[in-house]
Each structure stands twice: as C-alpha cells, then as structure tokens.
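Students often ask why we bother predicting the structure of a whole assembly rather than each chain alone. The short answer is interfaces. A chain on its own may look different once its partners are present, and contacts between molecules only exist in the joint model. In this exercise we take two input lines together and write out one structure for the complete complex. Read the inputs first and try to guess which parts will touch.
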Amino acid sequence: MKVPSIDRATVLRLAELAQLRIDETDVDGLVRDLESIVAYASELSDVDVDGVPPMQRPAADGAAWVRGDVPHPELPREGLLAEAPRTEESGFAVPAFVDEG
Amino acid sequence: MLANTACEVLRRPIAEMAAMVAKGEVSARELTDASLASAEADGLREGRGLGAFLTLQADAARAAADAIDAARTRGAALPPLAGVPVGVKDLLATQGAPTTAGSRMLTRGGGADPSDGWRPPYDATAVSRLRAAGAVLVGKCNLDEFAMGSSNENSGFYLAKNPWDPTRVPGGSSGGSAVAVAAGMVAGSLGTDTGGSIRQPASLTGTVGVKPTYGRVSRRGVVAFASSLDQVGPFAGDVTSAAALLEAIAGHDPGDATCSQRPARGFVEACARGVDGVRGLRLGVPRQYFGEGVEPAVESAVHASIGRLVELGATVVEIDLPHTRYALATYYVIAGAEASSNLARFDGVRFGLRREGTGGAGGPGGALTAMYRASRSEGFGVEVRRRILLGTFVLSAGYHDAYYLRAQQVRTLVARDFDAAFEKVDAVVAPTSPTVAFRIGERKDAPLAMYRADVLTLPASLAGLPAMSVPCGLAPKTDERPALPIGLQLIGRAFDEATIFAIARAHELVMPAIGAPP
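Now the answer. The structure tokens for the assembled complex follow.
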C-alpha cells in the first residue's frame, strides 16, 4: 500500500475534526510525528487478512449477560452538577447553539 | 509500635500485615501514618523526591484506619485487607477526592495543582471493593496523562522517578503506582494496563504487576482510554499480595457491561501451592520475544528464570507467535481510534477545564465549537493530542478500512497465535520489557522509540489475556548505571490467572530476592 502523505493541511483538517486548535509552531512537529507513525502503521498492509474477521474486543464473556430491566437509583443530579464548570437552572450550561432569531 | 517499625511492616506480604492488624500487633493507624509520612516526605511536586503521588487523602485515610482499629477493639471480624495502606492510580474515580487522570483537562481552570482535580460523585468499583475489603486508600498515584505513555513523562503535573535510579523513568503509564510500592510507601496499589501500563512499570521498578483478563475487573469509574483494551490490576511487593489484591477487586459488576460473571477466586490458593505450583506445566517460550531490540542482560535473566522453572518440574516448549511484529502498529491504530472517541467527552461542559473560545466558525453553533476547541486545546498535553489526531486519521473517510479495520483483522491473527500456542502450552514466559529503565528525557521526543517500550506487552493486551510481570533479577551495575530490575512476563489463557499466579509464586520462592531499592 502506498503510504498516504501527511502534510500541514492533513494535520489541520484532523485537528478540526477532533475539535482541537493547533498552535502554528506545533504543526510541523505533528506532521513529522504523524508521518512516522502512519508510515509504521502502514506495515499492516503486508499482512494477509483475507477472510479474517475484525476483532472489536477480546472474546471475553462480558456480553453474555444483560442487566435486569428494573429501576435503580442513579447518581444524584446535584453531585454531577457540583463539579461542572458552568451550570444553569439545574443543568450543564453551554453557549447558545440554536439561532432563536 | 515505633514509626520506623511500621515502615518495615509496610514491606511485608499483605496477608501478614492484615493478620498483625487483626491481632493488634500493629494498628491500622500506625501503618497509615507511616505510609502517609513516607509519601509526604517524598513531596508532592516537581523536582523533589520520586513523585509517586499526585494527592494524598490523609484525613480520610486516618479516619478509615481508626474505624478499623475501633472495630478490632470491639471484637468485630476484620475484612481480609484490614488496615493495609494502598495507593490508586489517579485514573480511577474516588468519591469526593481529586481525580485528574494526570491531565490539566480535569483540574479547575486547567491549573497545575492536582488537588484542584475533578471530585467525582462516586467511587470506581475497584476502589469501593478495596475499601470494602478494609484497605486504606492513602492517595492517588501519578501517571501519564490519560494513561498514554510508557515513562510517566507525560504526566500533566510532574515526573515520577525510578527509586532504583532517580535519573531514570519508572515506566508508565501507571508509573506512580509502581513507584509507591517499590519505594515502600504503600503495601499495594492499583494501576490500569491498556498495552503494558502495569507490567512495564512493574518490570522497571522490580515490583509484581498484574494485568488481569479483559473482563475480569470492572472498569466502572475508570477514565476510559481504549475500551477494548483497558483493564485494572494490582501492584504489590510479592506475588501472593498481588493475588490478594486481585481477589478483592475482581468479579462481576452490573455497572460494567464488559465485566465477566465468572467467579474470580482461587488466586491466593494458587500461590499456596508453593514450589509445586509449576510442576508438570508446559511453558511456551516465544521465539519472537527474544533477539533484536532485547537487551542481553534482560535475555540472560529471563533465561535463568526459565531454567529455575524447569528445575521445579516445568517443561519448556519453543513456540511461535508469528504476528508479534505487527502488534505495535495494530495497537497504536486501535488504541488511538478508541482514545480519539473516548476523549471526545472532555469538552468543557461536564467536568474540569472550560475556556470560552473566540474566533468560532460563526453561525448558530460557532460559540459552542469555539468553546470545545479552546477547552480541549488548553487542557490536553502533547502526547494526548498526538494520539487523538492519529485516532482521528485512522477513523477518517478513506483511511478507515486501510488502517482501523485492518488493524482489527490483524488483532484477530495476534489472538489466534495465542490460541494455537495454548493448545501446546499452559502459559507463555517471556521478558516484560525489552530493556531496563531508560533515562528521563531519552525517548521523550521520539514517539516511536517510546512506543517500542511496550512491544512485548502489547500482544497479550490485544488478545485480552491475563499477564503479569515479576522481578527476575537485576541487570549488573555498569559505568553508566546502577543495578536495575528486570521483569519476567507470564501470560496465561483467558480467565486462567490462577495458573500464572502459581508459576509466579513458585518462581518467587526459588528466585534470589532483588531486595529494596538502594
């Protein structure tokens, strides 16, 4: 497989998708880091995976049970809100994101 | 009892310590005071001491210890870990006590003081089980930010240092948990292991560290890094103590959908088989875990220990785990992808740092997006951002199949290698870390070189198997370095921790002790 090229535009696009702002001075370093890691990860294309199912998680038996469908007490609202950076009317507060105009 | 004697008791096996508390030979309070004193003397900041702890919960610890002593005075039966001081990696939630995940993302205003960390409204299940077993939680241990690292140099607060040589790293990401035990500040501790984060620091600090089978211990209340890999496990000074800690925390929890319902007992019992624990077992020695990149001193110590196990009646079989060389790439693709998704929750809304951003994209959501970006960009450190970007890349359109899906397929092949091996052998023995502790700063700016520290621990993580590291000697002192610990890794079948505990205990009984750090 051709190793994809990672350039400044790639890093800035990834940062946008990941909701990160990258300082101008850090961009070149991240380009180099990601280039080397992605090039290394591209070795996976050497492996014959024809017909091999993907493993999403170990075949442990965690999913072999379901929780009873019964009400149970959850964490109290006050406890969860107490540590939030901003709250309003007993909820988490975020900047307005709906145009009410 | 005198304080220095209580310090000495802290280095004894946990069952012995709890028995002394139960008999009144030492009080829980004395042990707790000794533990807190050594942690406080170490200093909770940059530059001083070993940096094992980020915060201490001194008042709560003393109150818990006093309650145990009072119960003893009343004649009440004490739980199995009564009065045993423990540390917990600061990735696990502790009710009302600062929990930072090693990140300034989780401190108020992004500050540099971990005691300003997020105070969760509940305990992680592993923590509440430790408390229920009578253990006294003295503090929260230092770690690489969000458990991403192999040296503890990525802590958002300060370095943790190796007690065998403070110019060297203790390993990571559970570095502080390993140091706290190695330096005798606590009797045991909890860490988490995603790709080697318990075993590698155990190896580098000469402690016992156990990564249980995926699904063995509840992750409820553990800040998630890579959910298909993360496991909680213990550190201790000896094998039976680690088994006792694992028995206390393991077992089903309806609060974690991935947590197995299988009984989680018999680990201490397996240790009680003593030198007979390994007789008749077939041990696989994987060709791919030796040779290039593995330090000669590490190889020879591991071979010497394999010889000890053979003398105790084990049979050694050379095995092949042919996909080992792809484990590192597989791991970084999968862990990066899962991390980029898990860390999306740190957005300035529910906990920790929040910065109202400027220069948003405009439109109705502009201010919200700007807030997300400002908060996350200030809160996350370099390595965390690097891994989020990598994870975002491998999940993005056009690369998902070539990287993420393919890594999951190769993961199947890594697991199948082990399945084939376990048809012929009962456990796998290998080095834990290819090298002894490396110098602080040596790999800091070379992500791939740092990632290679985990090359021998990643395969068992990918396969979800139980694995542990136990001390198997010291690399001889040279002109450049003092004598440094080496770890032997034991890997078992899924949910068969008992077998690797039995092997580890037999080995410990015939292995000359490496002693405490100088």
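Check your guess against this: Chain B touches chain A through 83 residues (CB under 8 Å).
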